[in-house]
Amino acid sequence: MLTGLSFGVIALLMVAGVLLDLALGEARRWHPLVGFGNLAMALERRLNRGGLRFWRGALAWTLAVLPLTAAATLLVMGSNAAQPWIWITHAVMLYFCLGLRSLRDHNLPIADALAQSDLPNARLLTARIVSRDTTSASEIELTKASAESLLENGNDAVFGTLFWFIVAGGPGAVLFRMANTLDAMWGYRTTRLLQFGCTAARIDDALNYIPARLTALSYVLLAPGLQGKLRAWQCWRTQAPAWSSPNAGPVMSSGAGALGVQLGGAAIYDGEIEHRPPLGEGLPATGADISRAWRLVARTTVLWLAVACAVAAWMEMVHA
Asked: Which region is the signal sequence (predicted)?
């Protein structure tokens, strides 16, 4: 392992990080990712001007990510990896990078508001988690926005983070989440960010390539019944290529197929209708499907932890 830790320890630290996230949620003050976001905004304001914007964006990405990744690496690599405080440091880094409880806390209230036919509150809550216009959104449109966010961010905020934690421990999780954050902030195809954010978008695509497909496969495996699994697989294979994002397509199409609902389609961004490819198949999504999407993400988390622990136990038996 790149961390110097055994896989058994890595598996236990994964469980510890997820439990910390579920128990504590996001730090309300002094969250490292919030501070990193402020740094990213300052770098973008400073460097995204004049010519050579692609290279300025590459420089900004380097200045934002590499020093902090190096510091995280030095923090856990400077001593014997078997020391308990090293283990605790890895687990705390993972906790700060995970967003499983955040997904629940931001999306289930939308489902509750829709269940009470409180569209104004549901629109307000949905606007906090997506960039599309929710001013006059219907229940179906709000459900689509929330469910798609849950499915996609299940990969970004949970499974991609766990994957890179397996690869490189706490520093791997930190690197992934910083790269993902920069893509979320800079990776838009607007006049201002198209060239500047290109490096952030492409690096995030590369880091997410394997985790996204493992996430999509997990959604397929956890779809109910053989028919559900075949539907999720078919949606992944036929619908994902139509999406411009190489990673969001597989994750959201397989997830929508697993849920057996229709997602994707038209959405309003910056006052203009964007006609997006369809996702999934079945009945139009309703508010109750938000809770079903959350349960799919939660079960996938349990699956990943169970597989990691099972592999760790098998490795211990082999080397016993």
From this structure: none
